[in-house]
Design brief:
guanyl-nucleotide exchange factor activity; DH_dom; 16 helices; alpha+beta; PH-domain like; DBL_dom_sf
Length: 448
Amino acid sequence: MPASRNQTPKKHCVSVSLSDQLSPPTTMSVYLKHSGGCNTVEEQRARWERKRNRTAKELVETEQRYFEQMELIATYFVEILKAKGTLRQDVREAIFGSIKSIHSANQILLVYLEDGKFGPGFENFCSCLHLYTSYADNMEHAVKVLQEQIKKNKAFVRFKKLQESRPEFQGLKLEDLLPLPLQRIHQYKHLLRDLTENTSRDNLEFQQLTKAVKAVSEVSQHIQDHARSHANYLQILRVQKLLKGRKTKVLAPGRWYVREGWLTAVPRKGEELKPKMFFLFSDILLMTKQCHPLHPVHSDKFICQCIYPLIECTVEKVFGHTKSQGGLISLTFESEKLLLMSNDQEDIHDWYRCLSAAIGQLRSKSTIVHKKDNLARRPLRSKEASMSIETQSVIPERGKKRNLNEGQWREQATNPNSQCSFPESEGTASKRLRLAEKSSERVGSLEE
């Protein structure tokens, strides 16, 4: 028997340091721990290094291009406009915001990146991220002011066209350059994430890059949320302008536009089928009808017929489960039931999905609020102390009570379709009763 048969095969092991065991795993560390063979580990390390080098090269090259574009705005617009006085200082600051400070911060970052110091570079750059946040918050106002100047200021229009015709701009306009800082933040998030995933934990820059990914991702999320909020505001404003008259108010804090479309409301017996335009929001459903097409002013507008609160709605799919044409959904409210029909099965299915999602989110928020209210109402004092406090608070301050009632009536007057109702206290009710009795006594004395 050959001696080689009695020999046990050599085991290839991968040594794992204590820091690797205690810290959360990365893509690289997970792969290395589960791969067998030192050659495989070395090959994989080389593969990660090549990926890191590609990401680093892309980061430097895109940063150079981004800095050149920021320099175009800072040099050919901000500085020259300041010297010429074509725009007032407040208008200039409204359009360009913190673009000069962003340009300076990225100039320092570019020096770090070109030297290969990615960790220290982004560690220093993270202290300047507030400039991007303020720039994003001012973006809509900047676009609005720029459009106003293009319409009214002929000298600025001539100056703008002259600068944009320079070969350095490569056909780009000022409107194309202004959103670049917001786009660059999203690029930073993805490039930094790739760079960190391909960086070994033993690298001194790993912790710096990890913190930078977190900070940049938070700013990127803030910019995305702000953009979604503004887009939602524009959608609701568009719907508000489509509605005839001023009685129906759809602009409200916390309200989100979901969708709109034509549906046929199934009427009672004997009535004619008529299509209605529905507007779905996060908390209400609007049923409208189109104004007469021959109306001289409002032919393209809609008349609101009813506002349905989704908090008290139950939605069911009556038919449309099969591949047959069309579908029907049922909406049940406290005082009414709606049957909505469409010949497009995909469309009615999307309505059912959107309604179900909106109702579910609304009820989950309502449940959370009720739980918080119950926790807030738990007494923190003894029973005697709470009773003494209640007896002291029976007589409210006269000024505060009057202001509250005025605010309530003002809310009802400005927003007659408001879903909120203010509960009437016992003191207010008894006071109103006494005033009514006094007024009736005065009327009786006058009649006598």
